[in-house]
Amino acid sequence: MSLLFPIINEPPHLWQPLLILQSSIAQSSIPILRQILANSLKSRSSNHFLLFSLAYAPSTILNDFACLPETVQVLDWTDSIPGYVDTWDDPRSAILSAVEKGERVLPERIMRFYRCRKAPPGSIQVVFDSVDTLCADIGYVSDTTSALVQVRDLPESVKKKSSSSPIQGPSRLILHTTRPSALATLLTQPQFSSSATLLIVHPPVLLRHLAQDYLTPPPPTSQKAKFWSVFLPVSERTYDVDRLVHGAGGEGSGNDTEIIVEILVRGSEGSGRKRGIERELEGWSLSKGPCELTKLESLRGIWGKKVIPEAAPDPTQNLSFNLNLTLSQQESRSRVPLPYAHEGKPLTQGHNATPAIFYDPDSADDIDNDDPDEDLDI
Q1: Cβ neighbours of residue 371 under 8 Å, at least 6 residues apart?
Q2: Which residues 6+ apart lie within 8 Å of 252 measured at CB?
Q3: Which parts of this chain are annotated as the region Disordered (predicted)?
């Protein structure tokens, strides 16, 4: 059963409260984030939508950016960098005000609002791209985590305070981060959210590397336990993965049309999922969306390959003489009687017969039962 498909297409009542997408230098998760947001806007499943853009331009994250509905609010901080602008304000108060009220809270010189009308009551999605940039602007991991905790709890507290609040339905916090990241380590802890979904993206070249150099293709070709024992430590060595893409023999950039997605779902009874953690590895294609790994064109060459063991060297090759027998020689050899003196005769009678040694002396044997040491000069 696919885990990625419902994550991208699930309606608000099935939302996990926290969704984290983790990119790397070798592979970006922005294409998947773009599809998640496009499906959400297309189905009108979110009445209130907030995008805090810090690393990527909003037009690269939202499809049909010029035709967005009025319920979508985009706060663009990509041109507000501490130390590079004359006046820079801490964005935390603006973020909390935007989530609570859905109104314009900062002057035009700090951020550009493309949609700033108050949304009608309904569900809300809050998207941060990216929290690592937010942490760099604030300057401290602990302060950034505390701000995100407030954003996480704010929709529920607003619903409890006022029945006329624009936030009445479920909420979802979507965070885009990169690896390695100290902030991502804190955000994935159960203390931050007991129910969460983590999507870690990998380039397809990583699986081709494992199949070729480690002889461990992904399931179903190899066993899951064996594959994960090899995949996890290799994928965590981000330097080696980056070298596969950007090295001398690499492709030069991440794949935007086909992506390998490592999915970790930590569910709870309230979300309809089992307690514990589910881990799967699935594929994503720009044309097909979520799909099995076997459906990806970039991995077509690794399926069905069998490792043929090298045959042992033949000792009869490259000799100056022939050690093999022809058919006629084999037949002649089979007709030669073997020189056994007692061939065909039973040696013992019954189970209690006394064992004996039969020996035919040779002509050169000197057998003297009287003095066996007679031939010695003593």
Answers
A1: none
A2: 245, 246
A3: 340-378
Contact between 130 and 55 under an 8 Å Cβ cutoff? The reply is: yes
Residue 237, both tokens: 């060595």
CA distance 333 to 63: 84
What is the span of the domain harbouring residue 24?
4-302
Q: Is residue 338 part of a domain?
A: no
Closest CA to 294 of 285, 283, 286, 305: 283
Which residues lie closer than 8 Å to 339 by C-beta, 6 or more apart?
none
Q: Is residue 333 part of a domain?
A: no
Count of CB atoms situated within 10 Å of the CB of 26: 25
Asked if residue 273 belongs to a domain, the reply is: yes
> How far is the CA of 303 from the CAs of 285, 295, 306, in angstroms?
18, 10, 9
Is residue 265 assigned to a domain?
A: yes
Give the pLDDT confidence of 168-224 residue by residue, as tens digits.
Answer: 567 788 999 988 888 888 888 888 888 889 999 999 999 999 998 998 999 888 888
Q: In this predicted model, what pLDDT tens digit does every residue of 336-366 receive, in sequence order?
A: 877 765 665 665 555 566 777 777 777 777 6
Model pTM? 0.71
Distance, in Å, from the CA atom of 208 to the CA atom of 45, rounded to the nearest integer, reads 38
Residues 3-42: tens digit of each pLDDT: 888 888 877 777 888 899 999 888 999 999 988 888 887 7
High-pLDDT (> 70) share of the chain, %: 74
Q: Residue 207 maps to which CATH number?
A: 3.40.50
Pairing relationship of beta strands 276-285 and 258-267 according to DSSP bridges: antiparallel
How would you classify residue 89: left for phi > 0, otherwise alpha for psi between -120 and 50, otherwise beta?
A: beta
- Comparing C-alpha atoms, which of 138, 117, 18, 35 is closest to residue 74? 117
Task: Tell me the H-state helices in 214-237.
Answer: 224-236
Cα–Cα–Cα angle for 217, 255, 291, rounded to 5 degrees? 60
